[in-house]
């Protein structure tokens, strides 16, 4: 969620770090800061873009560390922004520290005064007191990535979080986002967990391997936002996935799978996977510890009892999913540990990508916080895991929706919104509500259509908009009944449908091309993305960087 970008070198050090922070601020953007040193240390922080970080007054800078923050402990404020500095020693940190209250009591007894509310500030003070990053790391609990800079030295470490070193020009870059680091260099070193590294030319432990160089990501110059650009890429991405041969992981996961695990949009994709008969169970990653994993085992008298799991994570760094992998990996049944853990991720070099049998989403970089193309790519890959027939014209049908997006833009959506669906469309209702929440900041809701009469109907009057996901499938007639119930309460209906009866009942219609019941979820997903986008645009929201959210959720 937070981002680290550091440079050990003398060539435009401050500007290099500031530009690096701009490249990773899509991950988190509550605040940012840079510390630089030439023997003396100077630190600048901002609550806005890294562009607002002013050039320090010191010259002949030898190194620096930078950070973009997503607030966990403590509000968004300058005192809580990283780097935290004690005795000319600066520290930036990704992750949380579960025992920070105990550390805070200790450093206060030693005479340290904290000015903010973050757990990291306690960590920085402790490290300064001990004079050693490796010693202070022995005292903290939880996963982390950290960089610590004294007047003349830089040290880094990580534990189950992403942090990489790259050889660059006259020195070294340190970055928590591999894809960004690869824009600068293909000489990369992957760090071992819990090991502390000194960054300098004489450290022979810094051994670099050549990675495939990243293509430079062009700045968005054709659309107003990254989100719209990424929505428009979906036909090409789905076509690419459908035209690609099934990998051995697609095929092997197809036989006797047991559960899908994900968070947020990835969890909703997993719910649709159940309708594809790819999985027997779908578990929300953040709730994994509350489940009895025994109930998710397959009991086949002719085969060993093996739990297969598919982890879905856009970033490959989702903390709840990593925790779930640890839980099921350590789970034993009949003396055998779970071995078959697959993943769908957009980053094969991520923690999840490297610790599972990973399938590349093939969606390309997604810069907007709000997931769009990675969500539909997840659905397409789940189709690849299934044995269902695929609609080869699906990309063209997505394009039809996109070509008529001006119609969607013109549909008025109130500030009180409910999405309803049945069967495989209910997870899309959840996804539509989530998209609306993320970028409009409105309290959108989602329900199975049949649940309206069990409570939510009490909300409805003329001030509400109800979005009905109603392809002409086996649930169509029941969706019509639900729409009649909504109409009787004077709420406005936006119907996403091809059915004539629903069109006549609705106040506004978005025409849905016909396809299979399961693949229609990809089409309705694109529509709800557009509905949320245009509502957010009318409200003047920061669509690519919504408040309080981060692209990569690396804390539990």
Summarize the structure.
Strand 17 and strand 18 form a beta hairpin.
Q: Would you write up a description of this structure?
A:
- This protein is of the alpha/beta class and 556 residues long.
- It has a domain at 3-210: 4-Layer Sandwich (Glutamine Phosphoribosylpyrophosphate, subunit 1, domain 1), CATH 3.60.20.
- It is 32% helix and 21% strand.
- The protein has 18 helices and 25 strands.
- The strands form five sheets. The protein has an eight-stranded antiparallel β-sheet.
- A hairpin with a 2-residue loop joins strand 17 (332-333) and strand 18.
- Helix 9 packs parallel to helix 12.
- The longest helix has 20 residues, at 520-539.
- It is elongated, with a radius of gyration of 25 Å.
- 54% of the residues are buried.
The geometry reads as elongated
> What is the CATH superfamily of the domain at 3-210?
Aminohydrolase, N-terminal nucleophile (Ntn) domain
CATH class of the domain at 3-210: Alpha Beta
**Helical content, roughly?**
25-40%
The N- and C-terminal alpha carbons lie at a distance of: 11 Å
- Count of DSSP-assigned helices: 18
Total E-strand runs: 25
Q: Unreliable segments (pLDDT under 50, ≥5 consecutive)?
A: 214-221, 299-303
Largest sheet: 8 strands, antiparallel
CATH architect. name of the domain at 3-210: 4-Layer Sandwich
Rg computed from alpha carbons, rounded to a whole number of angstroms:
25 Å
CATH topology of the domain at 3-210: Glutamine Phosphoribosylpyrophosphate, subunit 1, domain 1
Strand order of the largest sheet: 3-2-4-1-10-9-11-13
Mean pLDDT: 88
Instruction: Supply the helix-strand structural class.
Output: alpha/beta
């Amino acid at each position: 969620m937070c981002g680290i970008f550091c440079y050990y070198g003398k060539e435009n050090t401050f500007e290099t770090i500031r530009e690096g922070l701009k490249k990773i601020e899509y991950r988190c953007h509550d605040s940012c800061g840079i510390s630089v040193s030439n023997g003396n240390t100077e630190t600048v922080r901002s609550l806005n873009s890294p562009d607002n970080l002013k050039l320090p007054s010191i010259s002949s800078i030898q190194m620096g560390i930078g950070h973009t923050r997503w607030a966990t402990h403590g509000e968004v404020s300058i005192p809580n922004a990283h780097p935290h500095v004690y005795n000319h020693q600066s520290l930036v940190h990704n992750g949380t520290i579960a025992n920070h209250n105990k550390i805070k009591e200790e450093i206060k007894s030693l005479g340290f005064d904290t000015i903010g509310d973050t757990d990291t500030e306690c960590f920085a003070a402790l490290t300064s007191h001990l004079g050693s990053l490796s010693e202070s790391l022995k005292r903290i609990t939880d996963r982390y990535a950290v960089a610590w800079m004294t007047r003349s030295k830089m040290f880094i470490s990580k534990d189950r979080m992403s942090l990489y070193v790259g050889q660059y020009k006259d020195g070294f870059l340190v970055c928590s986002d591999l894809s960004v680091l690869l824009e600068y260099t293909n000489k990369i070193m992957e760090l071992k967990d819990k090991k502390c590294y000194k960054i300098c030319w004489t450290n022979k432990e810094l051994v670099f391997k050549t990675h495939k160089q990243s293509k430079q990501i062009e700045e968005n110059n054709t659309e107003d936002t990254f989100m719209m650009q990424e929505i428009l890429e979906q036909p090409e991405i789905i076509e690419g996935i459908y035209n690609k041969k099934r990998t051995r992981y697609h095929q092997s996961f197809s036989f006797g799978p047991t559960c899908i695990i994900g968070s947020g949009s990835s969890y909703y994709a997993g719910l649709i996977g159940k309708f594809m008969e790819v999985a027997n169970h779908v578990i929300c990653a953040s709730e994994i510890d509350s489940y009895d994993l025994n109930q998710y085992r397959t009991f086949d008298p002719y085969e060993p009892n093996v739990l297969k799991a598919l982890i879905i994570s856009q970033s490959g760094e989702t903390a709840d999913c990593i925790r779930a992998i640890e839980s099921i990996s350590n789970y034993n049944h009949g003396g055998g540990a779970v071995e078959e853990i697959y993943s769908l991720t957009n980053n094969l070099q991520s923690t999840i990508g490297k610790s599972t049998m990973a399938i590349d989403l093939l969606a390309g970089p997604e810069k907007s916080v709000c997931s769009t193309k990675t969500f539909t790519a997840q659905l397409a890959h789940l189709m690849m895991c299934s044995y269902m027939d695929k609609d080869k014209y699906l990309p063209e049908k997505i394009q039809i929706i996109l070509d008529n997006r001006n119609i969607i833009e013109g549909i008025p959506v109130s500030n009180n919104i409910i999405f309803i669906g049945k069967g495989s469309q209910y997870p899309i209702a959840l996804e539509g509500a989530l998209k609306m929440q993320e970028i409009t900041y409105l309290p959108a809701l989602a329900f199975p259509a049949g649940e309206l009469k069990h409570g939510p109907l009490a909300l409805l009057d003329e001030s509400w908009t109800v979005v009905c996901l109603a392809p002409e499938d086996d649930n169509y007639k029941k969706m019509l009944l639900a729409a009649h119930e909504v109409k009787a309460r004077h709420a406005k209906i936006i119907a996403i449908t091809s059915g004539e009866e629903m069109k006549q009942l609705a106040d506004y219609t978005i025409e849905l091309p016909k396809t299979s019941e399961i693949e229609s979820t990809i089409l309705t997903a694109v529509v709800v993305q557009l509905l949320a986008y245009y509502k957010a645009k009318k409200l003047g929201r920061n669509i690519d960087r919504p408040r309080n959210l981060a692209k990569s959720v690396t804390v539990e």
